[in-house]
Amino acid sequence: MPTFVLINVVLLAVLIATAVAITRLRALYAAAMLAALFSLVTASLFVLLDAVDVAFTEAAVGVGISTVLLLGVLALTRSREAVTPRRRRLPGLVVVVLTGAVLGWASTDLPEFGAADSPVQRHPVTETYLRDSQEDIGIPNTVTSVLASYRGLDTLGELVVVFTAGLAVLSLLGPLARPDQIRPAPDLHLADYRVIRVVTGTLMPLILLFALYVLFHGDYGPGGGFQAGVIFASGFVLYGLVFGLDRAERVVPRRALWLLISLGLLLYAGLGLTTMALGGSFLDYDLLDPGHPEEGQHIGILLVETAIGITVAAVMTTIFFGFASRGGVRR
């Protein structure tokens, strides 16, 4: 068996074992950590499949910020799952088995793994994206060309979804968590431990610097606004967990976060309106520098990625602040 196939089989076995373990656990904190492990192994599989951008997103969102938010939810509820009567498990089991059978049957219609003559390899649009994009857009990372330029309107829709979902979650949590909803602060304060405090203080600028690298390097390698926004948020979340919500709010005030949530979306949409005002179509970056269309593409993609990063970081950080306010993570 080739080494590549063997590695994929091993990772698939780890995924199956992790999924089975999660279904059998009643301790929700342990289930949340295993879910993070599941995302990490999935990201490794994406790397093996050369989908590095997708792997980057899975690692940042699935392993990072989602795990923190799950733990925040559990801090407001309970740490063990209620016992479900056996008669109520059967419908769920039937649905899972049927869904798995349908997906398994559908997978038989897929081309052979890695086949050179698969439809995705032979379709004419593949040549457009992989070769013509280098002349049309002028950046090495084809994924960024597709997401931020060719299908920029679709990416704007995704940003609207993030914006709307963030507002929905914040509405459920309460705008700013009324004082009577705040629980007493826990006796354990991570900032009391010098090692944790020093390590966090050392890592913070490195995390933010890495987020900037991911944002501005998305034209040339894996990265972009979505990944950078989550990394920015992870840095602020780490700071809030260690030093408390009060100090975190002094660094990034909530009013500023609420403004930033809208600012990114307005910047993205405003860029499209600007290109229309210049006589082109919506999000036609060539008009930003008519004499050098490739430079216009660079400018437009950079502005789009920055807008995405601003909104994603602000939404994620504000959601954490909402959870932390209700759970009493204060100093």
TrEMBL record:
Membrane topology summary: Multi-pass membrane protein
Occurrences of domain MrpA C-terminal/MbhD (ranges): 14-78
Predominant location: membrane
Transmembrane segments: 6-22, 29-49, 55-77, 89-107, 159-177, 198-216, 228-245, 257-279, 299-324
Xref: InterPro entries: CPA3_antiporter_subunitB (IPR050622), MnhB (IPR007182), MrpA_C/MbhD (IPR025383), MrpA_C/MbhE (IPR046806), Nuo/plastoQ_OxRdtase_6_NuoJ (IPR042106)
Domain MrpA C-terminal/MbhE: 88-174
Cellular compartment(s): Cell membrane
A Pfam family this chain is assigned to: MbhD
Residue ranges annotated for the Na+/H+ antiporter MnhB subunit-related protein domain, each copy included: 195-317
Keywords: Cell membrane, Membrane, Transmembrane, Transmembrane helix
Family: Belongs to the CPA3 antiporters (TC 2.A.63) subunit B family.
Name of the protein this chain belongs to: DUF4040 domain-containing protein
